[in-house]
Design brief:
There is one protein chain. The protein is α+β, with helices and mostly antiparallel strands and 135 residues long. The protein has 3 helices and 5 strands. The strands form 2 sheets. It has a 3-stranded antiparallel β-sheet, with no helix packed on it. Strands 4-5 form a two-stranded antiparallel ribbon.
């Protein structure tokens, strides 16, 4: 069974080199390529957007859980690097920094929660991409 998603992200690249406009509802942002790859460097590269999605999801998931449980978490910071081992083999390296007066068991629980964020689950699971050319 194929799910239909009415709430789409729309991505458009016109003649301004690789400047790519991304729209989702009322939100808009830009992806691009750096100047050394003939882009205009007006936004992050698509791979950087992917890494930022993992980082943002991790940070938000940890924050939500800490708030729900009343943990003394002042801030969470996530750094994500993509290690491109081969063209088909990549490793995401995610460094999570938790600031606040947390007990060791709370830190351990937040580590587990970080690994359960929805983007982590998507990237760790089976991924299938269906491409259709529109008329």
């Amino acid at each position: 069974m194929t799910a239909v998603f009415e709430d789409k992200v729309i991505v458009t690249t016109e003649k301004t080199k690789y400047e790519t406009k991304i729209t989702k509802g009322k939100h808009q942002w830009v992806a691009d390529e750096p100047a050394d790859k003939e882009g205009t460097d007006l936004g992050p590269m698509p791979t950087e957007l992917l890494a930022s999605a993992l980082g943002a999801c991790t940070s938000i998931t940890v924050r939500m859980y800490a708030d729900k449980k009343g943990y003394a978490l002042d801030s969470v910071s996530v750094q994500v690097t993509i290690d491109k081992r081969t063209p088909e083999d990549h490793k995401f390296i995610r460094e999570v920094e938790l600031k606040g007066n947390l007990k060791p068991e709370e830190r351990d629980r937040l580590y587990t929660v970080a690994n359960a964020c929805p983007v982590h689950k998507i990237l760790s699971g089976k991924i299938e991409i269906e491409t259709m050319l529109m008329p």
